[in-house]
C-alpha cells in the first residue's frame, strides 16, 4: 500500500493481496480475543458482524487521508450509471433463480404423469427466530456489500489483473468470491462477481459495484423473508417466471460478453 497516494481510488488499487491476507488474519485474532472476553460474540451471526466490522475498520484505516470519495458519490447518481446499476442488478437477481425454476418446472411436469414422483427440489419454509433474521440481514445488507467489494474487487481483482491480465483476474477473483456462498448459488455468485469486476473496471468507482451488491442483497433478503421465491416456483407463476428468467439469462450472457470484449480492446 502506497501511503503517499492521496487519491482514494488510486490508494485502493495500491493495497496488496498480502496486506489483505495479513488484515484478515489480524481480524481473526482480534475477533477471537474479543469473543473470549465477551462470550456474547460467540454466536454465529454476532461473530460475523464483529468480524466484518473489524475488516471494515482496517480498510478505513488503510484509506485514511485520501480524497476523491465525494466525487465517487457524485458519479454514482448520474443517469447512465443509475440505469446500468439497475440493469445489472435485475439480470443477476433473475438469473439467480434459473436453476430452481428449471428443476421445479421439471418436477411439476413429471408429477402430472406420475403422482408418485418425489420432487427433486423440495422447498420447505423454516421458522427462524426474528433476532437471527435481523442479524443476518445486517450482515448481508450493510457489511457484505462494502467489505466484499473492497476485498474482492478493490484489492484481489485489482492486484490480480496486474499479474494475470484482466480476464483471468475477473475469473479468479469471482471464483474465490463465489466459493464463499451456498453451493446452490455458486454459479450465480460467480457471474455476479464478473459483473462487479466489469462495473468497477469501467468506472474506477468501487461505490458502483457496492450499490448493485447492496440492492441485490436487500431484494434477496426480502424475497427470503416473505418466501416470495417459493411462490414463484408454484403454478401458475412458474411459467412467466421461467420465461422472464431465461430471457434475463440470455441478456446477462450478452452483457458479460459485450462488456468484456470492449474492456479487452481498451486495455489490450
Write a structural description.
- The chain has 268 residues and is an all-alpha fold.
- The chain folds into two domains: 1-67, no CATH class; 78-267, no CATH class.
- The protein has helices spanning 8-14, 17-37, 44-62, 69-76, 79-95, 98-113, 130-164, 166-178, 186-203, 207-226, 228-231, 238-267.
- Helix 2 (17-37) packs across helix 3 (44-62), helix 3 (44-62) crosses helix 7 (130-164) and helix 9 (186-203) packs across helix 12 (238-267).
- The model has no long low-confidence stretch (mean pLDDT 90).
- Residues 133-219 form the CAAX prenyl protease 2/Lysostaphin resistance protein A-like domain.
- GO terms for molecular function: endopeptidase activity.
- The chain crosses the membrane at residues 20-40, 46-64, 85-110, 130-148, 160-179, 185-202, 214-231, 237-257.
- It comes from Methanobrevibacter thaueri.
- This is CAAX amino terminal protease self-immunity.
Estimated helix fraction: over 70%
- SS summary, helix count: 12
How large is the radius of gyration?
Answer: 20 Å
The biggest beta sheet reads: none
Distance between termini?
A: 26 Å
Which shape, going by the Cα principal axes? globular
Count of the domains: 2
Total number of β-strand segments?
0
**Overall pLDDT level:** 90
Features:
12 helices; 268 residues; mainly alpha
Topology, pairings included?
Blueprint: H1 8-14, H2 17-37, H3 44-62, H4 69-76, H5 79-95, H6 98-113, H7 130-164, H8 166-178, H9 186-203, H10 207-226, H11 228-231, H12 238-267
Protein name: CAAX amino terminal protease self-immunity
Pfam families: Rce1-like
Domain CAAX prenyl protease 2/Lysostaphin resistance protein A-like: 133-219
Amino acid at each position: 500500500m502506497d501511503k503517499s497516494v492521496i487519491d482514494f481510488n488510486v490508494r485502493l488499487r495500491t493495497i496488496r493481496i498480502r496486506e489483505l491476507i495479513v488484515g484478515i488474519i489480524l481480524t481473526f485474532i482480534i475477533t477471537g480475543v474479543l469473543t473470549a472476553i465477551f462470550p456474547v460474540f460467540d454466536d454465529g451471526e454476532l461473530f460475523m458482524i464483529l468480524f466484518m466490522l473489524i475488516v471494515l475498520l482496517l480498510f478505513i484505516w488503510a484509506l485514511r487521508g485520501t480524497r476523491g470519495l465525494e466525487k465517487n458519490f457524485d458519479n454514482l447518481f448520474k443517469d447512465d450509471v443509475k440505469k446500468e446499476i439497475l440493469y445489472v442488478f435485475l439480470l443477476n437477481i433473475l438469473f439467480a433463480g434459473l436453476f430452481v425454476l428449471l428443476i421445479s418446472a421439471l418436477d411439476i411436469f413429471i408429477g402430472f404423469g406420475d403422482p408418485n414422483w418425489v420432487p427433486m427440489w423440495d422447498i420447505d419454509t423454516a421458522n427462524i427466530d426474528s433476532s437471527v433474521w435481523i442479524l443476518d440481514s445486517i450482515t448481508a445488507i450493510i457489511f457484505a456489500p462494502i467489505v466484499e467489494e473492497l476485498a474482492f474487487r478493490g484489492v484481489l481483482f485489482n492486484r490480480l489483473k496486474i499479474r494475470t491480465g484482466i480476464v483471468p483476474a475477473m475469473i479468479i477473483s469471482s471464483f474465490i468470491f463465489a466459493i464463499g456462498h451456498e453451493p446452490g448459488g455458486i454459479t450465480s455468485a460467480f457471474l455476479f462477481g464478473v459483473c462487479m469486476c466489469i462495473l468497477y473496471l469501467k468506472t474506477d468507482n468501487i461505490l458502483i459495484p457496492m450499490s448493485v451488491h447492496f440492492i441485490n442483497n436487500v431484494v434477496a433478503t426480502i424475497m427470503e423473508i416473505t418466501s416470495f421465491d417459493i411462490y414463484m416456483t408454484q403454478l401458475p407463476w412458474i411459467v412467466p417466471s421461467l420465461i422472464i428468467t431465461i430471457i434475463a439469462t440470455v441478456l446477462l450472457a450478452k452483457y458479460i460478453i459485450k462488456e468484456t470484449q470492449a474492456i479487452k480492446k481498451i486495455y489490450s
